[in-house]
Design a protein that fits this description.
- The complex is a heterotrimer of chains A (about 500), B (about 100) and C (about 475).
- Chain A is an alpha/beta fold.
- Chain A has a single domain, classed as Amidase signature (AS) domain (Amidase signature (AS) enzymes), CATH 3.90.1300.10.
- Chain A has 15 helices and eleven strands.
- Chain A has helices spanning about 10-15, 20-40, 50-65, 105-115, 155-165, 180-185, 220-230, 275-290, 305-320, 340-350, 355-365, 370-395, 420-425, 430-435, 465-475, and strands spanning about 45, 75-80, 120-125, 170-175, 190-195, 215-220, 260-265, 295-300, 400-405, 440-445, 450-460.
- Chain A has an eleven-stranded mixed β-sheet with strand order 1-3-2-4-6-5-10-11-9-7-8, sandwiched between helices.
- In chain A, helix 8 (about 275-290) links the parallel strand 7 and strand 8.
- The mean pLDDT of chain A is about 95.
- Chain B is mostly helical and about 100 residues long.
- Chain B contains four helices and three strands.
- A two-stranded antiparallel ribbon of chain B has the order 2-3.
- Chain C has about 475 residues and is α+β, with helices and mostly antiparallel strands.
- Chain C folds into three domains: about 5-290, no CATH class; about 300-410, no CATH class; about 420-480, Orthogonal Bundle (Arc Repressor Mutant, subunit A), CATH 1.10.10.410.
- Chain C has 15 helices and 17 strands.
- In chain C, the strands form four sheets. In chain C, strands 3-7-8-11-1-12-13-14-15 form a nine-stranded mixed β-sheet. In chain C, strands 6-5-16 form a three-stranded antiparallel β-sheet, with no helix packed on it.
- The mean pLDDT of chain C is about 90.
- Classes of the chains: A alpha/beta (about 500), B mainly alpha (about 100), C alpha+beta (about 475).
- Chains in contact: A-B, A-C, B-C.
- Chains A and B meet through helix 9, helix 10, helix 11, helix 12 and helix 13 of A and helix 1, helix 2 and helix 3 of B.
- Strand 3 (about 90) of chain B pairs antiparallel with strand 10 (about 140-145) of chain C, so a sheet runs across the interface.
Chain lengths: ~500, ~100, ~475
């Protein structure tokens, strides 16, 4: 049976009812991987199949012996390849970390191991999570399961494509400016960027530390809530992880949404938003009133300065975070460097791809003496205005709804020559990172057979009610767990 | 406002990137496009606005002063990743050479 | 030194803080381990690792700052200082730039008990230490040991207030004393837990403008700081006299050759691209925290010394030497609890006691010789139980064995004979044996008395009280 088509919650339920074993679930996704992976190219590292099955067997044995297991125990999943896994290559899709095996597990990896989920492999991404299409991976571009001539989005494009193609039940990604939500939108799955500080970043290889958050990519809202139940929570190893009582997110599912207020910021429906996409999103929004929700247009005037502010903050932090890749302690080292300076320069120039170098350069420039005040400091101030925009809206509204991406998935190669146009595909998602608020993308319809995502933003730490709203909307729209027919051209 | 190739070279040396001539050219061009877009920020009146360095309200996040040894256990895995090492030390090309 | 030029010196001191663990991870803050064994993902700067700030590092830095009369910042934060060097695993150092934990302090420089200058302290900030490089003697490779990475440091930056190399050394000595007193750093220059860089410039006397500032590194002792600066004064003065220019640069002190040389490469760029460390939330240092730390602050050397001068009438020199080490000053005060004459305690402490301490190579207070012992010894002297000479013998014995002086005196039979009756018996015997001397004395040769005293002392094996012997002899002979 094609178990891989089930959602993670359904699979978990079947495991609990002993209708299926973890080995069968794992075998099912491994078969699916055998069928479609050559076409999708979502994995950078696929773990040895026998070992993956052995992991599944362990869980089955534990279950058979009557051990009490977590809900997701035995469910196969994937991790974005910027999450540290002890002894398993963690490359960030970069040549500079080719074959790098960290000596420790990320916090979220520990949590998933404790839960007993089964790791199938490490997912492709744009190099160091910098990009919106996975075309910046040093290894290969992942293809969108809905149309393999198109990109899956990025940077967590591998994670999104694997979930959409049925190669895993869920995956983790990371989101710095939309890197979970935009590929979720382009691949027709659910993707959440949690409130900054809700999920520990310990072991997430940093791109921009003040913006990065780890989030789940799943087939529906329930799965998303289930994964958050596992990975959210305070971790003393991350100083920005917020100590607060642990919530049970699945508790919010099915609660009434009547009377909750939705803000529609007109600023997100203007610049560069594809008319068809806008139409699909607006139709979905209109349906919310059928749920008894109030919907009103609002203005968030500083939205237009979000993209410049984002690129300055993100690149400045990245230039510093990526300085450690210098060929001394781990990773790639250029051959034949006669002295230290040439070792640094050659290693870094050969090890990083063009987009990463471009961003390191921009960040270094904006921090360098003479430009700090003009660029970096200005961007921090603009960040304050953007945060205040959100605070004002959330005084009167529970949620903000926008499109996730201005367009549906674009063709591979379409935007690679023009960095600025590529940056514009993040226009709707970056504000949530700048303001630190939670934001989710859920499928809301199709344009030309390609999925369209709707973004819901909420108050800090209001993930529970975001799930409450999106769960209702998801049933109303009937868009959960839709898997495309992957058109297998090669192999298979 | 535009960035010169010389500035790009200076920034590349700060970032320890040995850019090829064509990379310098394309980055100079792209820099100018991006910086032009970033000029939008200049249109805002930001005087008196406090910069946001940390998006949360967290303050005083401390660790208790307790020690725990991990190094001995970790060392083999760490050294195995080293491009070059000897006697438990990371080996690099001579540092002195650069200074003199 | 120069009369034509005024010397302007500022010092940057790095002191390791005496915490149990490192500043941003739980690796032990210890010295001398096998290379790369005292490390973890955080201090190795491995991808994905994050820093968490050690609260003790803050409290120790605040303690030092208060002892240096600094204003404590209410708001403080960490910044990243970006530069590439193999001993810096993240290629940035977590440090503090525009919001250090403390500013605007001062330190009184003391010479032979007199405060000679008040030196302003610009700032005190926290940062992490880097690793260590070793160089292949053949020059073909260098090697990195990351053990020291993440050891907590405070950087203490003085204003350019020092006016001579000697003052610079005295400032360092005063600073070290304060850090030792407050228990914030062990200040071992030989282990690198205290390091000093100096900025020096010269300007014509009367000029308001500063000359080109030269930074000097690699001075590994207080003497080296003074010598390095003296050399630099000589070098810069010579250049200026000859009408040449002094260049702003970094120079390295070479101890053996006694010269400084320009360090090329280091100067290349100082564009550190500081920006706020996003991985560490800022600090809000409350008045309550400052109050608690202030309560823990011990009396500082300068305060203590002036109290000694006032309360115990010590000379400034005595007061300075005693307060130069906290252990010695504590010993002094503890002794006074059992014996009141501060002058005598001071004399013995600075004389015979310190001599023995130095011979034994230990630390006062830690050795088996305790304040009660000194108090007891001095009391025995006052009571006339032992003579001054015997006291020194007893002192040495107590130092060796840790036995109380009274015990030593008794066990060894060193009690001075002060019993008149038994002394008179001896004296009568001596007089009978030395008729000649008695005749000399009665015929007016008073020197004969000294001979008779000596003979009596010999008979008692030195245990007689000499004053009493003399008195009793006079009674017999004159009476």
């Amino acid at each position: 049976m094609d178990y891989y088509k089930m959602s993670a919650a359904e699979a978990a339920g079947a495991l609990q009812n002993k209708e299926v074993t973890s080995q069968e679930l794992t075998a099912s996704v491994l078969r699916r991987i055998g069928e479609v992976e050559e076409e999708i190219q979502g994995f950078i590292t696929l773990l040895d199949e026998n070992e993956t099955l052995l992991e599944a067997e362990k869980i089955d044995k534990a279950r058979a012996s009557g051990e009490s297991l977590s809900l997701l125990a035995g469910v196969p999943m994937a991790l974005k390849d910027n999450l540290c896994t002890r002894g398993i290559p963690t490359t960030c899709a970069s040549k500079i970390l080719r074959k790098y095996r960290p000596p420790y597990d990320a916090h979220v990896v520990e949590k998933l191991k404790e839960t007993g989920t089964v790791l199938v492999g490490k997912a492709n991404l744009d190099e160091f999570a910098m990009g919106s299409s996975t075309e910046n991976s040093a290894y290969y571009t992942t293809r969108n399961p809905w149309d393999t001539t198109r990109v899956p989005g990025g940077s967590s494009g591998g994670s999104a494509a694997l979930v959409a193609a049925g190669e895993v039940f869920f995956a983790l990604g990371s989101d710095t400016g939309g890197s979970v939500r935009q590929p979720a939108s382009l691949c027709g799955v659910v993707g959440l960027k949690p409130t900054y500080g809700l999920v520990s970043r310990y072991g997430l290889i940093a791109f921009a530390s003040s913006l990065d958050q780890i989030g789940p990519l799943t087939r529906d809202i329930r799965d998303c809530a289930l994964v958050m139940d596992v990975i959210a929570g305070h971790d003393p190893r991350d100083s920005t992880s917020v100590p607060r009582e642990k919530e049970n997110y699945t508790d919010y599912l099915g609660r009434d949404v009547k009377g909750l207020k939705v803000a529609l910021p007109r600023d997100y429906f203007e610049e560069g938003i594809n008319a068809e996409v806008k139409k699909v999103v607006m139709e979905a929004v209109r349906k919310c009133s059928g749920l008894g929700m109030e919907i009103e247009e609002v203005s968030m005037p500083y939205t237009s300065c979000a993209l410049p502010a984002y690129y300055l903050v993100a690149t400045a932090e990245a230039s510093s975070n990526l300085a450690r890749y210098d060929g001394v302690q781990y990773g790639y080292r250029a051959a034949e460097a006669k002295n230290l300076l040439s070792l640094y320069k050659k290693t870094r120039n050969e090890g990083f791809g063009p987009e990463v170098k471009r961003r390191i350069m921009l960040g270094t420039y904006s921090l360098s003496s003479g430009y700090y005040d003009a660029y970096y400091l200005q961007s921090l101030k603009a960040r304050t205005l953007i945060r205040e925009d959100f605070q004002k809206v959330f005084e009167n509204y529970d949620f903000i709804v926008t499109p996730t991406s201005p367009t549906v998935a674009f063709k591979a190669g379409e935007k690679t020559d023009d960095p600025l146009t590529m940056y514009l595909s993040d226009i709707c998602t970056i504000t949530a990172n700048l303001a630190g608020v939670p934001a989710i993308s859920i499928p809301c319809g199709f344009v030309d057979g390609m999925p369209v995502g709707l973004q819901v933003l909420g108050r800090p730490f209001d993930e529970g009610r975001i799930f409450q709203f999106c769960y209702a909307l998801e049933s109303l729209l009937g868009v959960r767990n839709q898997l495309p027919e992957v058109n297998v051209k090669r192999g298979g | 406002m535009s960035v010169s190739r010389k500035e790009v070279e200076y920034v590349a040396s700060l970032a320890r990137l040995d850019l090829l001539p064509e990379e310098k050219e394309s980055i100079t061009q792209q820099f100018n496009v991006i910086l032009d877009y970033i000029q939008r920020l200049k249109e805002l009146n930001l005087s008196g606005v406090e910069p946001t360095t940390h998006v949360q309200q967290l303050k005083n996040v401390f660790r208790e002063d307790r020690s725990e040894e991990k190094g001995r256990e970790l060392l083999p895995e760490v050294l195995e990743e080293a491009p070059d090492s000897a006697r438990g030390l990371f080996k690099v090309p001579p540092v002195i050479e650069e200074e003199s | 030194m120069s009369h034509e030029y005024e010397i302007i010196i500022g010092l940057e001191v790095h002191a390791e803080l005496q915490t149990k663990s490192k500043i941003f991870c739980s690796c032990p803050n210890s010295f001398g381990q096998k290379p790369n064994t005292n490390v973890c993902p955080v201090c190795l700067g491995l991808p994905g690792s994050l820093p968490v700030f050690n609260e003790s590092a803050l409290d120790l830095a605040l303690k030092a700052a208060l002892a240096l009369n600094c204003e404590i910042s209410t708001f403080s934060r960490f910044d990243r200082k970006n530069y590439f060097y193999p001993d810096l695993p993240k290629a940035y150092q977590i440090s503090q730039y525009d919001f250090p934990v403390a500013r605007n302090g001062y330190l009184d420089v003391v010479k032979e008990g007199e405060t000679i200058r008040r030196i302003r302290i610009d700032r005190l900030h926290l940062e992490e230490d880097a690793g260590k490089l070793q160089h292949d003697p053949s020059g073909s490779s260098s090697y990195v040991d990351f053990n020291r990475c993440g050891v907590p440091l405070m950087e203490i930056v003085s204003a350019p207030d020092l006016r001579s190399p000697e003052e610079a050394r005295l400032y360092l000595e005063s600073l070290k004393r304060i850090l030792l007193y407050t228990g914030t750093s062990d200040c071992k220059m030989e282990e690198g837990s205290l390091r000093c860089d100096a900025n020096i410039s010269l300007r014509p006397v009367g000029s308001k403008e500063f000359g080109a500032k030269v930074e000097i590194k690699n001075m590994n002792s207080f003497k080296a700081v003074q010598k390095g600066l003296e050399y630099e004064v000589y070098r810069q003065e010579k250049l200026l006299r000859e009408g040449e220019r002094v260049y702003q640069e970094t120079r390295r002190w070479f101890e053996e050759q006694g010269i400084t040389l320009e360090m090329r490469g280091k100067e290349e760029e100082k564009d550190y691209r500081y920006f706020p460390e996003p991985d560490l939330p800022p600090l809000n240092i409350t008045a309550e925290r400052v109050r608690k730390i202030r309560e823990l602050l011990p009396e500082l050397p300068v305060q203590r010394a002036s109290r000694y001068i006032e309360e115990y009438q010590l000379t400034p020199y005595q007061a300075e030497v005693i307060t130069s080490s906290q252990g010695l000053a504590d010993f002094f005060e503890e002794t006074l609890k059992g014996y009141r004459d501060a002058q005598k305690v001071s004399n013995w402490l600075l004389g015979d006691v310190l001599k023995l301490v130095n011979e034994q190579g230990g630390e006062i207070g830690v050795l088996s010789f305790q304040p009660v012992h000194l108090a007891e010894l001095l009391s025995l002297l006052d009571e006339g139980v032992i003579s001054g000479r015997t006291a020194k013998e007893v002192l040495e014995e107590t130092f060796q064995t840790g036995k109380a002086p009274r015990e030593v005196v008794q066990a060894k039979g060193l009690v001075q004979i002060s019993d008149e009756k038994s002394l008179l018996n001896v004296i009568d015997k001596v007089l009978a044996e030395n008729k000649g001397a008695v005749e000399d004395y009665t015929s007016g040769n008073k020197k004969a008395l000294a001979f008779l005293v000596g003979s009596t002392m010999k008979h008692t094996k030195g245990q007689a009280n000499p004053q009493l012997v003399q008195q009793l002899l006079r009674q017999r002979l004159d009476g």
